[in-house]
């Protein structure tokens, strides 16, 4: 279906990045990696954690595609260290764009944005044209990264695309709701969570997210394009938490404190029509996805 391409994955050791490496390697693509940790692999570039430079891989190779899965993905961190979050999610994106412009201008660039750009939407489902009112520095920084991709397409002709990921989960994820649930369940019978439990999210399993990346590479015009990345299914936090807990500790009790976590939205449900036109169909409902995630946790933790 897809011709073999040369692809660079920045943030290749992270949750989404590592899955991208496995996915495109399995497709037979020529996969190169970049991240802040050391590696002996010949097709790997070590990026400095501070004052990062992204020129080297683009000087050495002409890539068909570059996926940036690096940066911070933690709302709380953006309140604690807004300057670092800005560096990781905005400054580094601009540096990547400059490197592509200077050395590899035909490269298709995909950057991971976030549904955090929307904040609390007025209407559901959320379309890509919904008003953006972020609730956190993280959300604002992701919105700024999107503007950079628009800028570099408009003024420099680069092929750019932003993916607004809603609530992605699956094997190798070691943060956010389900990871926290699992960690707490190991230590206590009563699992305490923020909120009321009536808040909603639109969850997407990692394999469905990978399907979206492949469809975007093949079909997107890459004109500063923006896509929601979700399943178009609204689930309450209480329902999701219970589904997951049933996989490894059905006797555990989940208690919601009612305390609102700063930066957290109330309700999310994505409109996925743009990607459905490219042929996107989720292969994993939440029950199946959480079963696979729980299996991985039991084997690896």
From TrEMBL:
Coiled coil: none annotated. CDD domains: SDR_e. It comes from the Bacteria. InterPro entries: Epimerase_deHydtase, NAD(P)-bd_dom_sf. Residues 7-230 form the NAD-dependent epimerase/dehydratase domain. Belongs to the NAD(P)-dependent epimerase/dehydratase family. This is SDR family oxidoreductase. It comes from Flavobacterium nackdongense.
């Amino acid at each position: 279906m897809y011709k073999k391409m040369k692809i660079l994955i920045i943030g290749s050791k992270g949750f989404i990045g590592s899955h991208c490496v496995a996915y495109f390697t399995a497709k037979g693509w020529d996969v190169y990696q970049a991240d802040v940790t050391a590696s002996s692999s010949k097709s790997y570039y070590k990026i400095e954690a501070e004052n990062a430079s992204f020129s080297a891989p683009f000087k050495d190779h002409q890539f068909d595609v570059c996926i940036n899965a690096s940066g911070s993905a933690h709302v709380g961190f953006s309140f604690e260290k807004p300057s670092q979050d800005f560096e990781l999610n905005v400054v580094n994106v601009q540096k990547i764009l400059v490197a592509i412009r200077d050395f590899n201008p035909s490269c298709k660039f995909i950057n991971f944005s976030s549904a955090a750009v929307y904040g609390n939407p007025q209407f559901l489902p959320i379309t890509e044209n919904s008003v953006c009112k972020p609730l956190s520095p993280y959300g604002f920084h992701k919105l700024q990264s999107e503007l950079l991709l628009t800028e570099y397409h408009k003024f420099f002709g680069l092929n750019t695309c932003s993916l607004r990921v809603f609530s992605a989960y699956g094997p190798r994820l070691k943060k956010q709701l389900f990871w926290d649930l699992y960690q707490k369940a190991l230590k206590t019978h009563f699992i305490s969570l923020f909120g009321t439990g009536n808040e909603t999210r639109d969850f997407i399993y990692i394999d469905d997210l990978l399907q979206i990346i492949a469809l975007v590479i093949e079909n997107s015009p890459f004109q500063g394009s923006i896509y929601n990345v979700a399943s178009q299914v609204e689930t309450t936090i209480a329902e999701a938490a219970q589904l997951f807990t049933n996989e490894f500790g059905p006797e555990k009790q989940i208690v919601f404190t009612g305390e609102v976590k700063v930066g957290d939205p109330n309700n999310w449900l994505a409109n996925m029509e743009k990607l459905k036109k490219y042929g996107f169909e989720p292969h994993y409902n939440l029950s199946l996805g959480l079963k696979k995630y729980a299996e991985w946790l039991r084997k690896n933790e």
